[in-house]
Design goal:
It is a single chain. The protein is an alpha/beta fold. The chain has a single domain, classed as Response regulator (Rossmann fold), CATH 3.40.50.2300. Strands 2-1-3-4-5 form a five-stranded parallel beta sheet, with helices on both faces. The radius of gyration is 13 Å and the shape is globular. This is Response regulator receiver domain-containing protein. Keywords: Phosphoprotein. It comes from Friedmanniella luteola. Pfam families: Response_reg.
């Protein structure tokens, strides 16, 4: 069973993602959060396998929350959700923060596939993006 936590400040988006995950075989929705600071605290308590994280969360960004999560839980798998691939260099910033995927909100069919892929140790990047290797990022 893949334990998933969802973080998005928009109630409709959060509810839609949650419903998709709840209906999926082999996936357990363990919680939902509305901001980046909350997700860090909730992840400490619920110990999810995968977090589906909005890029633009209140209190702190999804990127900052991902950095904090990865420093506390290095085996955690984070997928960033965004409305655009080009949001401030989104996929590259997600990779630098420690995320292993970047999915567009307008492509819900890819979300479940991405959750399963990252839970199995893979990644879920846009087809046009090649994440930097760890060797190219000193200090990571």
């Amino acid at each position: 069973m893949i334990r998933v936590l969802v973080a998005d400040d928009h109630p409709f988006v959060r509810a839609g993602v949650a419903e998709l995950l709840k209906s999926a075989e082999g996936v357990e929705l363990v919680g939902q959060c509305a901001d980046g600071a909350e997700v860090v605290q909730v992840a400490d308590a619920l110990e999810p396998d995968v977090i589906v994280m909005d890029v633009d969360t209140p209190v702190q960004s999804g990127f900052e929350a991902t950095r904090q999560l990865m420093s506390r839980h290095p085996d955690l798998r984070v997928i960033i959700l965004s409305v655009s691939v080009v949001t401030g260099g989104g996929p590259a910033m997600a990779a630098r923060a420690g995320a292993v995927g970047y999915i567009l909100k307008g492509q819900p069919a890819h979300l479940l596939e991405a959750v399963r892929a990252v839970a199995a140790g893979g990644t879920a990047w846009p087809p046009t993006f090649t994440p930097p290797t760890n060797e190219a990022e000193p200090g990571r």
